Model the fold of this input.
Amino acid sequence: MKLGRWDLGTWAAYGIALVATLISLFPLYWLFVISTKTPREAFETPPKLLYIPDFSKYIEVWTTGDFAASYLNSIQVVALGVLLTLVVATPAAYAIIRFKVRGVRYLRFWLLVAYTTPEFLFVIPMYVAYMQLGLYDTVAGLAIIYQVFAIPFAVWLIQSFLGEVPRELGDSARVDGAGELQTLLKVYLPLAAPGIAATAILVGINMWNEVTIALSLTFDNARTVQIAVAGYRGYAAMRWQEMAAAAVMAVLPMIVFAGIAQRYIVKGLTFGAVK
Done:
């Protein structure tokens, strides 16, 4: 059935996509509304849709307390964590697709199991080890423990991206005298760069949003932004406006980063889909 330029199915698809988008954006919108209203306006019924925004809570959150320090901690943890992940996962993924590793099917299954294992299972043994090694409540310690779930996930993705590179190109480079490291760096990485960029983005987002491990292995010096947001929940009262403002600022970098890098995500996740 035709309705104008589009048929009924096309209109239905766009309608469903629009509804899904509005549903996913509404929590962010409501966070912003709460953060820019007075306490009385934020919870009045029915809510006012037209009001004068008050951004004082954003200034208060950023200039008082330790939110800014926690923000910097998260940036450092994600930067170091993603770097460590790519340095370890990329050669490992290359070895899987390049060499005939015995039991590679079981290895890939184990990587999936390791990634899906609940994070809290690692907290207790790592807490004891970190206290003994002096890594408790440090940025480096948090970035290292994140490798437990980041490396299996990254290897799983990167090996599929590297596997899409024509094997003949690597063979030609080796015939010309290139070693395995040179082949990886000069042949595979440039061609699989979109996929590796997509992996780095997804790993970084997971690390930025992680709470369980950060809550257990940090106290004050390496506390992340997600823990700082939860800190506005007091014993006697909830500081709703401050918490909402902090949550908006915690989410904003991921939205901006994903928006800038979305072409890499789309290109990477569809890499090799069309020959």
